[in-house]
Amino acid sequence: MSKMGNQEEKRRSYLWAALHMKCPRCRRGNIFENKSSYYLKNLLGMHRNCPVCGQRTELEPGFYYGTAYVSYSLTVAFSAFTFVAWWVLFGFSTEDNRFFWWLGINGFLMLVLQPFLMRLSRSLWLSFFVSYNESWMAENEDKKNV
Ligand SMILES: [Zn+2]
Q1: Over the chain, what is the mean pLDDT?
Q2: Mean pLDDT of all residues in 109-120
Q3: Nearest Cα residue to 83 out of 100, 62, 64, 63
Q4: Is the confidence at residue 101, as pLDDT, over 70?
């Protein structure tokens, strides 16, 4: 493989693929029909199969019910992060309402980020069950030749 190719593969790390809503098997195809997280009409519309490698995106009926756990964890992690950031930047005190400002702003951010988090949860969930397959292209060729 050429040097360029290697760098390209490195860029497509596990986290990169999950954050960019790419198929976890080939890390190339988009799993959602719309690229934008804010096209709310079709927020969770997914391709049945990865448009690049053909990986199924719904492994079994009701597969995405489990995303509730992921989205809950993301919510907790995100709130913990803003809590610490707020603590460092502004601090907390019992003598004023700084805590409630954090609560309000955190809540607002959660709301704004919700569409993105919902999609990210699905992307992560799928990536827990489908692992990256370096030779997806070759394997797809084999299937075609049978
Ligand atoms: Zn794929």
Answers
A1: 91
A2: 95
A3: 100
A4: yes
What pLDDT is attached to residue 1? 45
Cα(51) to centroid of ligand 1, in Å?
A: 7
- Residues 24, 38: Cα–Cα separation, whole Å: 22
Cβ contact 23:133 at 8 Å: no
| Whether 21 contacts 31, CB under 8 Å | yes
Percent of the chain that is helix, strand, coil (3-state, to 5):
60, 5, 35
Phi–psi pair at 22, nearest 5 degrees: -95, 155
Which tokens is 119 given? 């999609």
Ligand 1 centre to CA of 90 (Å) is: 44
19 or 4, which is more confident? 19
CB under 5 Å of ion ligand 1: residues: 23, 25-26, 29, 50, 52-53, 55
- Domains of the chain, residue spans: 10-137
Q: Token pair of 32, please?
A: 């959602």
Measuring CA to CA, which residue among 23, 33, 21, 16 is closest to residue 54?
23
How far is it, in rounded angstroms, from Cα 138 to Cα 114? Answer: 38
